[in-house]
Amino acid sequence: MAIPSPALDLSFEVFPAGSETGRAGLAKAVSTLARLNPRFVSITHGADGSDQNRTLGTIDALRIENPTLGLAGHLTMRGGSKGEILATAEDYAAAGARWIVALRGDAPDGAGGRFAPHPHGFQSSPELIAGLRERTDLRIAVAGYPEAHPESLGEQSDLDHLKRKVDAGADTIITQFFFDNDDFYRFVEKCRGAGIDAPIVPGIMPIANFGSISRFAARCGATIPARIADRFEKAEARGAAHDLALAICAGQCDDLREQGVRAFHFYTLNRADLTLAVCQALGCDSSAPVDGERSPIAQPQTAMRVSA
Length: 308
Ligand code: FAD
Known about the structure:
Blueprint: E1 9-14, H1 20-34, E2 40-43, H2 52-65, E3 71-76, H3 82-95, E4 99-103, H4 125-135, E5 139-144, H5 155-167, E6 172-177, H6 181-193, E7 200-204, H7 210-220, H8 226-237, H9 241-258, E8 263-267, H10 273-281
Helix pairs in contact: 2-3, 3-4, 4-5, 8-9, 9-10
The structure holds flavin-adenine dinucleotide.
Flavin-adenine dinucleotide binds at residues 44-45, 47, 74, 76, 101, 103-106, 111, 124-125, 143, 145, 149, 151-153, 157-158, 161, 174, 176, 203.
């Protein structure tokens, strides 16, 4: 029997679509995923700040189509002064977002380049988070990196930096995607050891297209284990890649759930099919009425082998 969705705390990440066809596909995907009663659907923000209006426009459009759906806007500190960035956050709130995913953002030439803050902008993500906390009532999620960020200066430095983000006012940490759950368990354990007590929500990437996810993972510093790569090579040859992606992702989430994880953030890439199938495989009910007034994530997320 299906377990009601509230047993799991779901969020779904999408990006602003660039064409009419893309917008129609996104609207359909979000309406489908809304039936799983997620805490929020989050909309990414272009790295250079140039398309913040697209994030805002997407929040607006999704709220009109799904009035009770929880919404989150991503916001990077690139491409704007402090005043401009905070004004964007206020615009998100006015458009109906209740959450913000607050990020430093990447260097202009991608994750490998060197980040340079805007001359009149926030100089670091903790400073951005403190500014958002002071100026808005939005709940704040920030990024964490189980396999370390490509610019990591070392483990202790990463933990200190993440702690500064939480101390500045972050409510929740959402992780970069990963495929080996032991990386996540180790990360949570180290965070707890460092006194980081905010909930840590695993970022889950269903492998809708092995080639493009592999390239993306390489840029982000996420490892695809050889056991997964080998299976995809064989499955693609027999036209069974979708079934394999479902089995791998559902298996990953099931293991996390067995270890006590209750919240999951899915990188949907604007597609509902795989994410929906994974959530259904986990027993989520996709027929419940959408309830946008869910209470905030209150407790640190704990998992076996992990102390809160
Ligand atoms: P930070 O956490 O500030 O820094 C990243 C890393 O750099 C740290 O983990 C640490 O290793 C190191 N570092 C930085 N400053 C210091 C310091 N002072 N001391 C020590 N170490 C330091 N990108 C987008 O452009 N748009 C999006 O919408 C978007 N959404 C995302 C959502 C999630 C859930 C995640 C995980 C990532 C997202 N990204 C997005 C990618 C993100 O912008 C990049 O990974 C970026 O390079 C880092 O942003 P951050 O906020 O994690 O930075």
